[in-house]
Design goal:
single chain; alpha+beta; conserved putative lor/sdh protein from methanococcus maripaludis s2 fold; Elongation Factor Tu (Ef-tu), domain 3; OB fold (Dihydrolipoamide Acetyltransferase, E2P); six-stranded antiparallel beta barrel; 27 strands; about 30% helix; about 35% strand; elongated
Length: about 425
């Protein structure tokens, strides 16, 4: 059974329209969708570029270099450039043989020293006293020897008398035997005194050597390039704890500035092509307008596997007062003989443009490179000149300073987006 109830008057009175309420914004969701769509449309190109860049192949690049041979410099063409530091071929950290306090220093930085010259002294009053005592011991031993010799001579004369008396039957056999024993003891005392003198003289020599060890002498002719100790400091042959600069008891660094060379490092991929005694040009960073003649002196027999490099030493053939150890220098290795014309070296004043040979590719008999511009790889046909070890001369097609791709991937296309390693 369904019961229908009629609304009461009170319920009907509550049913009225509130005309003060704001109208519903039915267009707001559509506006939100429109704004999001516009934002997505604006971000899409950037997102697409980002995705394309992330998917682009990563490549190695090298800069095309231009080198000009200036008047007065070597006429040989450059084949490889490396940087390093000037070092002395003969250099020594001069230290002390005995520990103690420095009593005298006879050098400063820049002081020229001779081979064997005393450059410093360690306090040695105690050693001098030991030396004096040893010398007095020698004098005492010599006096004892004189006494022993006099006693021996007297005992020998007495023995001769006893023998003469025994021959005449005047003395007894016991007296003769006693005289012989006394003479033998006296002779032994002489030998003992002589040995004591030798021992005392040896002690003098030891003390004298100890005194000499307090002198620090220059091992060769050279110049003091670094002072490692000051007057009054305590030094030791094994160094002083907390003083790393004096490790090993070194008080000075001496170098022969007549034989200077550049210590540089060359990649493992390049050093095998270097030749013994190859000519080079050395340029100091401080005096770039003044090149020096150089020559490859040594390629170290071992490599640094962590860095994949080999150390190389280049002798500076014409050093002057401007060349100083630890200066930064660049070395340009050159072809032996340079450019020849009628047996004479010809100076080249025109610029030489070089780039790595690994940047060159060939297709259909044409040589070309990939030049990176604004993140894209552009194919360029180039005209090449002679090889320069791991580099090659470029006649035209690229400009100095442009970045070319080294070992380009075979799938690369013109105007393709690429990523440069390390950028």
């Amino acid at each position: 059974m369904t019961i229908h109830t009629e609304p009461s008057a009170n319920d009907l009175a509550r049913l009225r329209i509130d005309r003060d309420t704001a109208p519903r914004l039915r267009w707001l969701p559509w506006l939100t969708v429109l704004v999001l769509g516009a934002g997505a449309a604006m971000l899409y190109p950037r997102a697409r570029v980002y995705v394309v860049e992330r998917q682009a192949p990563e490549v190695d690049v090298a800069r095309v270099a231009q080198i000009v041979t200036a008047p007065g410099s070597s006429s040989a063409l450059p084949v490889l450039v490396a940087s390093g530091y000037v070092v002395a071929r003969h250099s020594s950290d001069v230290g002390v043989k005995v520990g103690g306090r420095i009593a005298r220093l006879r050098f400063e930085e820049g002081t020229r020293v001779k081979n064997g010259e005393v450059i410093a002294e360690i306090e040695h009053a105690d050693i001098e006293a030991q030396l004096e005592a040893a010398r007095r011991a020698v004098a005492e031993a010599e006096a004892q020897l004189a006494q022993a010799v006099a006693a021996r001579d007297e005992d020998l004369r007495n023995l001769d008398r006893q023998r003469a008396l025994a021959k005449d039957g005047i003395t007894t056999t016991a007296n003769l035997t006693a005289a012989e024993s006394v003479a033998a003891v006296s002779a032994a005392r002489v030998k003992s005194a002589d040995a004591a003198i030798a021992s005392a003289r040896a002690r003098v020599k030891v003390a004298d050597e100890a005194l000499e060890n307090t002198n620090v002498r220059a091992p060769f002719d050279g110049v003091v390039i670094k002072k490692r100790a000051e007057l009054g400091e305590t030094v030791s042959p094994f160094g002083v704890q907390g003083q790393a600069s004096r490790e090993g008891g070194a008080i000075a660094t001496i170098a022969d500035l007549h034989e200077l060379e550049v210590q540089t490092e060359v990649s493992e991929n390049t050093f095998a092509k270097l030749k013994a005694s190859m000519p080079a040009e050395v340029v100091l960073q401080a005096f770039q307008s003044h090149p020096y003649k150089g020559r490859l002196r040594q390629i170290f027999p071992s490599a640094d596997r962590a860095k994949s490099i080999v150390e190389v030493r280049v002798s500076i053939l014409d050093p002057d007062e401007h060349v100083k150890p630890e200066m930064t220098a660049s070395v340009t290795f050159q072809e032996p003989g340079g450019s020849q014309a009628g047996g004479q070296a010809v100076a080249r004043l025109d610029p030489v443009v070089l780039m790595p040979k690994k940047a060159v590719a060939e297709r259909n008999g044409q040589s070309f490179v990939w030049v990176v511009t604004n993140g894209t790889a552009n194919r360029r046909v180039v005209a090449l000149g002679p090889d320069r070890l791991d580099q090659i001369e470029v006649k035209n097609g690229v400009m100095p300073g442009e970045a070319v791709i080294v070992n380009p991937p075979g799938t690369l296309t013109d105007h393709a987006v690429v990523r440069v390693k390390g950028s």
